[in-house]
Design a protein that fits this description.
Layout (H helix, E strand, L loop, with lengths): L6 E8 L3 H12 L4 E5 L22 H13 L4 E5 L1 E8 L2 E7 L1 E10 L3 E4 L6 H4 L4 E2 L2 H4 L8 E4 L2 H15 L3 E4 L9 H6 L3 E3 L3 E7 L2 E7 L2 E4 L2 E4 L2 E4 L3 H4 L4 E3 L4 E3 L12 E3 L10 H23 L4
Parallel strand pairs: 1-2, 1-6, 2-3, 6-19, 8-15, 9-10, 9-15, 10-11
Antiparallel strand pairs: 4-5, 5-6, 7-16, 12-13, 13-14, 17-18
Helix pairs in contact: 1-2, 1-8
Length: about 300
Amino acid sequence: MAVERPEFVDVVVVGGSFAGLSAAIYLARGRRRVVVVDEGLTRNRFAPAGHSLFGFDGRPPAEIRAAGMRDLLAYPTARVVQGRVATITENAGVFDVKGQGVALRARRIILAHGMRDILPDLPGLDQVWGKQAFQCPYCHGYEAADRPTAIWMNAHMGVDHALFLRQWAGRELTLLTNGAAVPEGAERLAAAGIGVETGRLQGVSLRDGQMVGLVLDSGELPAEVLYMMPRSEPASDLAAQLGLEMVEGPAGAYVKVDEMKQTSRKGVFAAGDLIRPMYGAAFAVADGAMAGPACHRSLVMEDLGRG
């Protein structure tokens, strides 16, 4: 029986959220054969609404993503494959992309599969993550303003970030040290009316599925909003497989790229949360808008014998 050969395309984009779709549309408009491989597990799937992306402010992330998919699929050289890329290998400048429901060969790769958050083992946290517990005040702070708020970060970063969050939190804001000593600079917090709690976190207090407080070994702290910075890691090990250079950020390592979103490996570009320590939909779209044209240009130059 003849074995079906993998489809050969110009570019495989791994990840079909804001960064990946943005990059893919540029490639499709450049009349390149582009396949987006996406498994549907976006980082922002826990959030009921996305913010700060003009034209889409307050819309559910899945709705924004679906609109992007429709835009992309209007181009005949683009398609989307539902699946997960397991391996990417290279031979003589051609990348073999394989995985669940995936068998492709491509001249270029754009990694846009994002990051995954590694939540601490705190009972109840997973039920409110993206709804009442989150990282970014620009993403969620406006809607969560003027409610009892706690911030959980290491002492070095916590003081400055607590002062920064005062803009949103209003009068009831507490910095949690989770058993660590009162941080240096605590007098600045006191002057701003920000409390400090040194008890160790034990869990999230829920009522009807809503966070109403944080359980500490010293008692319960009323809180309806929690800001924190969990550790994060790439949502796939593809960067490690490809031997890409990484950068260590405050929450974990991310992929190093140049201004054109080219990684340390020729032919591999990256965009979105995977390449930056600061996250957001607008950043991801902008990254894709750079990675797509840069990838396209590299193909054009190669075709002209100048790559």
